[in-house]
Specification:
- The chain has 367 residues and is α+β, with helices and mostly antiparallel strands.
- 24% of the residues lie in helices and 35% in strands.
- It contains nine helices and 20 strands.
- The radius of gyration is 25 Å and the shape is globular.
């Protein structure tokens, strides 16, 4: 049970508002999970319940097997990293890190060593005497992380840890943050609304909506096999077709008739679905053929969908190029191609849109 976090049927109400609704999940020792979802989904309230800033109305909350639902924050072995760091501006970096050690009763003679270890861990050994105001945002984030880890907490809670940084620095620090958490083997819960941050930091993602779990699983499961349109759209760019399952296709698959009159091959769902479904295809799973290649694309494998269309627009996004394609039935989809291609279709040029049946995501209509 060491360092395990367990929530069982936990609820929290603010008057008529249900912020968290009978929430249950477990975080294993050393595991990093992400609570992911839009504003108002209940993820921050859940973090505050675990930290002790809020008290659950119902349910049980255990840390390392102990019921802590009525314990104060300082009575729980938890390290916190806030969105805006909350460092003491009048203290040096070393004193900021030492603050929790002193208040938790660590032996005075051990504190300099522990502070030095934390500074080395976050690569700030030469910044011990500086104050937070003399440091960049990324360096302040590292100090806050060192302070959160210094007391050797059973659980580390990260509240939007990288949201205050610019995009380039966020990408760099994601890698460092994951390495630091892995080195200390901390049981960690990250709260974020950024799906890239969740996928890069967490071994498991819990997608929340309306105070409840919409889906949980590994990053690959959540992205590649979402169980609803809400989860699929929250995890990234999606192209959608509405329609009905119309029959069987080869290799155990199904045929799907879109509302616009296109017939597609789709995989058979693992669970029984109603006849009316929504089908999603990610932009990076789409290939485009144009010019002489468009004619060759007619001889595709049986499990490949091929739809005629025309390029309606294009945009360069660094490593990728995105193409807006208007299909023969009037649907518009986005295809993402790597920028390493030597030639690309021009706006207005006819193209053949190709994607594999197994890359189609099938969810019940309206879910």
């Amino acid at each position: 049970m060491t360092d395990t976090v367990e929530l069982t049927d936990v609820s929290k109400h603010y008057g008529p508002l249900v912020a968290v609704n009978r929430l249950s999940f477990t975080v294993s020792p050393g595991e990093t999970i992400a609570l992911l979802g839009p504003s108002g989904c209940g993820k921050t309230t859940t973090l505050r319940l675990i930290a002790g800033f809020e008290t659950p109305d119902t349910g049980t909350l255990r840390l390392a097997g102990e019921d802590v639902a009525r314990k104060r924050p300082y009575e729980r072995s938890i390290g916190l990293l806030f969105q805006h760091y909350a460092l003491f501006p009048h203290m040096s970096v070393a004193d900021n890190i030492a603050y929790g050690l002193r208040h938790r009763g660590f032996p005075r003679q051990d504190i300099p060593r522990l502070v030095a270890e934390m500074l080395a861990l976050v690569k700030l050994s030469d910044k011990a005497a500086q104050r937070p105001g003399q440091m960049s945002g990324g360096q302040q984030q590292r100090v806050a992380l060192a302070r959160a880890l210094a007391t050797q907490p059973k659980v580390v809670l990260l509240d939007e840890p990288l949201s205050a940084l610019d995009a380039k620095l966020r990408q760099e620090l994601r890698v460092e943050l994951k390495q630091v958490l892995a080195s200390v083997r901390a049981t960690t819960i990250v709260v974020t609304h950024d799906q890239e941050e969740a996928m890069s930091l967490a071994e498991r993602i819990i997608v929340m909506n309306h105070g409840a779990i919409a889906q949980q699983g590994t990053p690959d499961e959540i992205y590649s096999r979402p169980n609803s349109r809400f989860v699929a759209e929250f995890m990234g760019r999606s192209n959608w077709f509405a329609g009905r399952i119309s029959g069987q296709s080869g290799a155990g698959g199904l045929t799907f008739a879109t509302a616009s009159g296109i017939t597609l091959r789709i995989p058979a769902p693992a669970q029984p679905h109603p006849a009316e479904v929504d089908v999603c295809i990610r932009p990076e799973r789409i290939d485009l053929a144009w010019g002489t290649e468009a004619a060759e694309a007619a001889a595709v494998a049986p499990n490949i969908n091929q739809v005629a269309g025309r390029v309606a627009g294009a945009a360069l996004l660094g490593a990728d190029r995105q193409f807006l394609v208007e299909l023969v039935g009037g649907d518009r989809i986005v295809a993402s191609l790597p920028n390493r291609l030597r030639s690309v279709p021009a706006e207005g040029e006819p193209v053949s849109v190709c994607f594999a049946a197994e890359d189609c995501i099938v969810v019940p209509s309206g879910v």
